[in-house]
Structures are given as C-alpha cells and as structure tokens.
Amino acid sequence: MAILCVYSPPSIRLDSANLKYLIDKIPKPCIVMGDFNAHNVAFGCYSDNNRGRCLYNIIDEFDLCILNHGSPTTVPYPNRQASAIDLALVSSLIAHLCNWYVHDDSMGSYHLPTLLEINIQPSMYDRSPPVDQEKYIYSRAAWDEYYGLSETCFSHLESINDSPTNAYNHFIGILNDLRNKRIPKRKLGANTAIKKPVPWWNSKCSDCVAKSKDTLKHYFCQPNIENWIKYKRKEF
C-alpha cells in the first residue's frame, strides 16, 4: 500500500500530467490525500472550476474513490462559503475499509484537520506469526566491560583492506555483537505494560483548547466579522 500526499497551490495550474504519472507509478492499493485547491460538487463544494473538473477526470481514470462526503474542510471567511478542497482518494479495492471524517477543531488553521481510518487486520498483509519484541536495558549495561571489549574488537579495524561497504557492515556487526554481549535485554510480549511518556499537558493548555473550540463553534453559528476576529484571537 502506498500513501501519496499532495499540495497544489491555487496560484499555479494543476500539473495533471505529473499527478497522473505519480498515481500510475506508486504501488496499489493506494491512498491519495491533500489540499488540491480544486472545487467540484462531487467533493462537497458549491460549484465546479476547471481544476476540479480536471481532477475529477483523473480520479475516474485511475478508478479512485472519493471518501469526502460533503463536509467542508475549511473555516470560511465572513460572508464566504466553506469549501471542501482537502480530499481523500483511495483505490476502489480498499474503499469499503476506510472511514473519513473532519475534525471539529481547526486548531487555529484555515483548514479543518481530516482523519482517515483504515479497518485492515494485520493478518491481511502479514502472514508471519507474531514475534515478541526485545528491548535493551541500557541502565543495566556493563559499560566498563563494553569499553574494554570494544578496544580489542576495533583495534584491527583500520588494517582491514576492503571496500567501504564491507568495512561499514563489519563495523556495524561489531557494534551489534558488543551490544548483545554486554547489554541485557528483555522481551516485550503482547501483554507487556509500556510506561506512558511524562505528561506535559496542563490545565492552561486545556483551557486554551476549550476556548478555541467555543469561539469556532460561535463563529460557525454566526459567521460575521466580529466573531471571526474573536475566533482568530481566541477570545470569547
């Protein structure tokens, strides 16, 4: 599966030939997402433009499915209509496995974040049995022994008369061997608890996010200049 991210500036003509080339060459099935700045009623826009019609023909040519369901993907300026220029296109083979939706918080951007979920079981692509992962415990490493052994192992490295690639592979092999001999490790099974990262989120961050959401909702209800300014300033 391949993922192609696209941004097409509105001031530059859509390079349809290059887009066709990329879609044709990437492995299938594929996901094509991005800001195309193209308008078409099939995407959820209120009207079509030349860029939107051209892109729609490309979608049809490569048998892609449009996951957009009409929801706008932008926060419109006052007295202007919202548009759906952020598209999610997938191969028809996996379209029924995908769920696309628009987040309700713009996070201060002109664009609303879009999210794509793919309901694919790992067994569909990975037939190998699950293998327990191993984690090295560097806090319990025997560094003195590691240092002494490394001096012995690397002492003859300069005398190796070989190609740079073989010399590099030999060097990496020594490092891996040293790590396996002097750094203990433990297995991480499916039920192994992994510590969560240290939280940096505080109440001030939560208040800012809540205020941003409130001002955005208020602007959507009454899209005027005053509420637009409040939204951009995060005031309510």
Automatic annotation (TrEMBL):
Domain of life: Eukaryota
InterPro entries (UniProt xref): Endo/exonu/phosph_ase_sf, Endo/exonuclease/phosphatase
Residue span(s) of domain Endonuclease/exonuclease/phosphatase: 2-114
Name of the protein in its database record: Endonuclease/exonuclease/phosphatase domain-containing protein
Molecular function terms, GO-annotated: catalytic activity
